[in-house]
Write a structure and sequence with these properties.
Blueprint: E1 4-12, E2 15-22, E3 31-40, H1 42-48, E4 65-72, H2 74-80, E5 87-90, H3 100-103, E6 137-140, E7 146-148, H4 155-158, H5 161-173, E8 181-185, H6 189-200, E9 205-210, H7 215-223, E10 228-231, H8 237-244, E11 249-254, H9 261-269, E12 270-278, H10 292-298, E13 301-304, H11 310-322, E14 333-336, H12 340-345, E15 359-362
Parallel strand pairs: 8-9, 8-11, 9-10, 11-12, 12-13, 14-15
Antiparallel strand pairs: 1-2, 3-4, 3-6, 3-15, 4-5, 5-7
Helix pairs in contact: 5-6, 5-11, 8-9
Bound molecules: zinc ion (2 copies).
One zinc ion binds at residues 41, 43, 63-64, 162.
Length: 364
């Protein structure tokens, strides 16, 4: 067993360095996980570029970790009913869930105001130093939330649990039920996860939109259960969708990042008394041509969603373990820990075919 962990430290936006640190003892109430993989998502790219609030540097990135329990405290063993060698998917949130900041989703007193109390946002100087998934090892404090994963599931598929849990949650937030028509804007890993979850919830018609360079992802959307996939011109999204679905959608889920146009598209696509789920952050941009009268006249429900409950993660792991879907095709890009920067930057690829669906690092 090595006695040192290797970890990526983002010392400032755009600067990764690899450090080593002694692997600590977990104490009676915690555990040390030997990481197998960590999902990489658009949030990691935003942190890399210094584009997110509530982020202080230095930090150890990585908030979608998967690994094997290596060292386990005495009390933790009993309380968690775990053994060394158990494989677990770990939820990113670390808040105590008891303090006033936690109750307001404004941080956590234990982790300080102004820093998200999540894995992937903590300083390497915070004891015991292992708070990020871009590392060979991770510390589980008593409040950590995780779920066992069947060791038979290949690493790539298992590493999609966080993206899948978002889809499961967003579809639940939209209230998708049997017979509904669902339009999903954006065929990224989370949009594809919405396809899986919408089908599972009994949706009657699932439509997914993407841009011209999303053809490979749209093909995958179809194989995961979408009825209709549309490569759209960004200027005519609503029209194109309504051509395919003239009565409009019961639920529209906007998973697209940055571009604000998708918000007005979603309002246009939703049918009378439909629901629009806003899941993609737009970098605090305002939405031009947003007419609240459309919401009033159509009696729409607008639902925002930021965090994903643990139950959705459990559901995601069950979907993965069912092995009924070609989830291996989600796990398109894998990089070793030493190439973490290339892994994060791979999300910037523009050309269809080069564009990852889901990226993960492997710790070797
Ligand atoms: Zn993420
Ligand atoms: Zn707290």
């Amino acid at each position: 067993m090595p006695d040192h962990a290797r970890l990526v430290v983002e010392t400032a936006p755009g600067t990764f360095e690899i450090r080593e640190t002694p692997i600590p003892e977990p104490g009676d109430d915690g555990a040390i996980v030997r990481l197998e993989a960590c999902g990489v998502c658009a949030t990691d790219l935003e942190i890399f570029h210094g584009d997110l609030p509530f982020v202080a540097y230095p930090l150890v990135p990585g908030h979608e970790p998967l690994g094997v329990i290596e060292r386990l405290g005495r009390n933790a063993r009993r309380r968690w009913q775990l053994s060394e060698g158990d494989r677990v998917a770990i939820k990113s949130s670390l808040g105590c869930r008891r303090c006033v900041l936690c109750s307001q989703s404004a941080g956590c007193i234990e982790f300080g105001e102004g820093r998200l109390p999540n894995y992937g946002f903590q300083s390497p100087d915070r004891a015991p130093g292992l708070w990020g998934g871009f590392a060979t090892h991770l510390y589980l404090p008593p409040q950590a939330q995780f779920f066992p994963v069947d060791p038979a599931v290949p690493t790539g598929e298992a590493s999609t649990f966080n993206a899948l849990s978002n889809g499961v949650h967003w579809v639940a937030v939209g209230g998708v039920k049997s017979g509904d028509s669902v339009v999903i804007l954006g065929p990224g890993a989370r949009g594809l996860a919405c396809v899986i979850a919408a089908r599972r919830a009994g949706a009657d018609r699932v439509v997914v939109t993407g841009l011209g360079n999303d053809r490979a992802k749209l093909e995958l959307a179809r194989d995961l259960g979408a009825d209709t996939v549309l490569a759209v011109d960004p200027d005519t999204v609503a029209e194109t969708v309504l051509d395919a679905l003239p009565s409009g959608a019961d639920i529209v889920i906007d998973t697209t990042p940055v571009a604000t146009r998708s918000i007005t598209d979603a309002l246009g696509i939703a049918r009378q008394r439909g629901t629009v789920v806003l899941a993609g952050l737009k970098g605090r941009r305002s939405v031009p041509s947003f007419f609240s009268d459309d919401v009033v006249n159509k009696e729409l429900v607008l639902r925002g969603t930021a965090s994903t409950p643990f139950a959705a993660m459990v559901d995601a792991v069950r979907i993965i373990e069912s092995r009924r879907l070609p989830l291996d095709r989600l796990a398109t890009h894998s990089f070793p820990l030493e190439e973490a920067e290339a892994g994060v930057r791979s999300l910037e690829a523009k050309r269809d075919g080069d564009r990852p669906v889901h990226v993960h690092l492997t710790m070797g």
